[in-house]
Amino acid sequence: MPSAAPSPAASPPTTTLGYALFATRWLQAPLYFGLVAAQGVYVYKFFNELWNLILRCVTGQANETYVMLAVLKLVDVVMIANLLIMVIVGGYETFVSRIGLQGHRDQPEWLSHVNSNVLKVKLATAIVGISSVHLLQMFVDVHHTSQHSLLWGTVIHMAFIASAAILAYMSGPMAAQGDRAHRTGAEPSASTAPAAPAEFAPSAPAPVPVPVPAPVPLPIPAQATSSPYDAYAVHDPRDPREAGAEARIRDARFPARKLLEDFDEEHPRVLDREAVARLGKLDFVAAGRNVVFVGPPGTGKTHLAVGLGVRACQAGHQVLFATAAQWAARLAGARAAGRLADELAALDAHPLLIVDEIGYTPFDPDTAHLFFQLVAHRYERSSLVVTTDRPLGRWDEVLGAAAPATVDRLVHHADVVRLEGDSYRMRRATSAWAE
């Protein structure tokens, strides 16, 4: 007879003490709301200064120097307010509790990857900016500023610059070392693949392993016997880098070659073009971050995903593309063969995996469990690019009970890009019919 599970009351005292200490972080919450009140004070100060400037300009009492100094004061107030909002939002997110802004169209770029190092560097650069404005005010009003004040203002400003540069220099290697330790030393072995949370682990008994002679490959379209990229490939023996990129593109199994440069940015009614341009630099691959394209059919999600994949291949990264159904077939075959952990470990050779068309076909619980394992295995280690027609809040329609845990890991370090608009394919079909 199986033994009864231990009751929560039997947990060690050290665990209870640890949870109690961790709960004290909420004592910081009132401090951040106090900073919100300070933000309101600066809003009042800004409009008070602006009103005085307008009055003096209208009555002819403002000369050029006064206007310049007044504008610099307004800039100074805005920069300090920016510093406050960075401390309020970033500090609360880092030290108190996460803020559920994933997918919000106005989510700040820096908040998606905020940590103590990033926050310190951004605060230091903000302080340097504020110091620059103060120093500029001194030079503009040089006739009313003593040489002693100018000298010390310059020295203090240079000290701020030097400290910010040193902090940025130290934060870079520290973050890189932590990332390397997380990717190598902390990687689980093939025998310790992430387990699904108990709340949605399938209750049916595990299938009996069926030995197979070789790994189950990704399904390949029938026309893939001759690669669709042969017409585009440039096999120049004098340029091995180009030949290597073409080989990586062919191995990635893209359905067609799509380039970011060819994407019609004017077609979607809603698209964060700056986010797409930033993603095109591929920093997310080096950082092990994810990308999620959300939008209705025909808005260009697959084009953007393939475009990022092609660019990653050209940059030297191994990429693998498949639809959600094809990934499910591959992982199900590996599980049936008793080698799912080995399959997930083998995929680590690809810094970027692309999962297309999540949401078009709901997953059964076993398949949802497999997809969770893929996301959990790559969490904070390697990148996923995902396209979906379902908002993340509706992924329970596709993954069932596995949705919350899967989405939580997928978007924790992710850029969520929303697209809205009519279907590009339908628009072209309608135009052809009209002609």
Condensed summary:
With 435 residues, this protein is of the alpha/beta class. The protein has 15 helices and five strands.
Instruction: Determine the fraction of residues in helical runs and give it as a percent range.
Output: 40-55%
Give the overall shape, derived from the CA principal axes.
elongated
Unreliable stretches (pLDDT < 50, length at least 5) are: 1-11, 178-238, 430-434
Number of DSSP strand runs: 5
Percent in strands? 5-15%
**Lateral arrangement of strands in the main beta sheet:** 2-3-4-1-5
Radius of gyration: 28 Å
What profile does the largest beta sheet have? 5 strands, parallel
Which tags fit this structure?
435 residues, alpha/beta, five-stranded parallel beta sheet, 54% helix, elongated, disordered N terminus
Describe this structure in words.
With 435 residues, the chain is α/β, with parallel strands linked by helices. The protein is built from 15 helices and five strands. It has helices at residues 13-23, 29-58, 64-95, 116-140, 147-185, 240-252, 273-279, 283-286, 301-314, 324-336, 340-346, 365-378, 396-399, 403-412, 424-434, and strands spanning 290-294, 319-323, 352-358, 383-388, 414-418. The chain has a five-stranded parallel β-sheet with strand order 2-3-4-1-5. Helix 12 links the parallel strand 3 and strand 4. The radius of gyration is 28 Å and the shape is elongated. The protein starts with 12 loop residues before the first helix and ends with a helix.
